[in-house]
Design a protein that fits this description.
- By secondary structure, the chain is mostly helical.
- Helix content is 72%, strand content 6%.
- It has 14 helices and six strands.
- The strands form three sheets. Strands 1-2 form a two-stranded antiparallel ribbon. Strands 3-6 form a two-stranded antiparallel sheet.
- A hairpin with a 3-residue loop joins strand 4 and strand 5.
- Helix 3 runs antiparallel to helix 4 and helix 11 crosses helix 12.
- The longest helix is centred in the first third of the chain and has 27 residues.
Length: 334
């Protein structure tokens, strides 16, 4: 009953947030933080529940952003064979969102298929290399991506619904609700997976892979499923990011963004449903709060010290520590 009441309160706060958060700049921070929280949630599915560290996760976010932007803008490039050209007419942003999710998931499947047979440090190297390759492609394939000049004037997300008609999401408030809807859908999907037979198999692989294999669990199959689902969610977040920011350049593939997602997962509590959300809120909002009282150098020092202290004193993350404290206090599980 308490958990239901708390859930309703949290939902009420989230739904009403744009109405009592007067400063549009802060709402912008909430939107961008929300998109990275979705990325962290998707990364947690792979890192937290299978134990596989993907340090190229931002590649799927960036692929989703570019696919959605190019679908909406249209493009014309030289055919790889012959003297002709390939022309793609501009399409709806919603189609771009769908394609971004599918294509990012497909790349996740391919990378998983190629690298999960070697796993460990080799998997980490493959994912980092893949992210760097995607960045170089976006930087150098100027005919398609405009390279360092960036893709700009990306149309905002649009809708065409019965009783509501047609429209485009130009302002921050509708974009906030769009990001909130994506975050809720991804959370529900991850929760359903984790609580299913598939989730139990992934956790078994994380805890003791030889024992899981001896019990008949197909390692590659479940790891590929986690990688594909994780990449698809990151691609969906990247799509909304492109249509919200409305300009995309190769910097979207920077390694620091993957590090940010990993920090959100580790500090919040990997292998927990709410951990990446808590970590995302802290390390997404903390820099903004520090800007009001400190210069850039002090901001990064405080940011780093906070992360180190959490890792030192709460090695399993914030959420597991709170759960243990609550269990000791009440004598029951949260």
């Amino acid at each position: 009953m308490k958990k239901l009441a708390l859930t309703l309160v949290v939902l009420l706060v989230l739904v009403t947030l744009p109405y009592w958060l007067a400063d549009q700049y802060y709402l912008h921070i909430v939107i961008t933080t929300g998109l990275f929280i979705v990325g962290a949630m998707s990364l947690n599915l792979l890192l937290g529940y299978t134990g596989q560290l993907n340090l190229g996760h931002i590649a799927f976010f960036g692929i989703g952003a570019y696919v959605s932007a190019l679908t909406s803008l249209g493009f014309e490039i030289a055919a790889p064979f012959g003297d002709g050209t390939i022309v793609v007419e501009p399409s709806s942003p919603f189609l771009g969102f769908v394609l971004a999710t599918i294509i990012a998931g497909l790349f996740g499947f391919i990378i998983g298929k190629l690298s999960f047979k070697i796993r460990g440090a080799y998997f980490v190297i493959v994912t980092i290399s893949f992210a760097e390759v995607t960045r170089l492609v976006s930087l150098n394939w100027v005919d398609l991506t405009q390279g360092p000049l960036a893709l700009n004037n990306i149309p905002p997300m649009a809708y065409n619904l019965p009783f509501l008609g047609e429209g485009e999401l130009w302002s921050k408030t509708p974009n906030y609700y769009l990001v909130l809807a994506l975050a809720i859908v991804c959370y529900i999907i991850i929760r359903r997976i984790v609580q299913s037979r598939v989730g139990r198999a992934m956790i078994a692989l994380r805890e003791n892979e030889p024992l899981a294999v001896s019990a008949g669990i197909n390692v590659t199959r479940y790891l590929n499923f986690a990688a594909t689902t994780s990449a698809a969610m990151a691609g969906a977040a990247g799509s909304l990011y492109a249509h919200y920011i409305r300009i995309i350049d190769p910097d979207v593939f920077l390694f620091i963004y993957t590090v940010t997602m990993v920090i959100m997962v580790i500090t919040g509590g990997k292998g927990t449903l709410i951990g990446p959300i808590i970590g995302g809120i802290i390390f997404g909002i903390l820099p903004v709060g520090l800007r009001e009282v400190a210069g850039p150098e002090v901001q990064w020092i405080v940011y780093g010290v906070a992360m180190v202290l959490i890792v030192m004193f709460l090695p399993q993350g914030i959420v597991p520590a709170i759960q243990k404290w609550w269990t000791r206090r009440t004598g029951s599980e949260t």
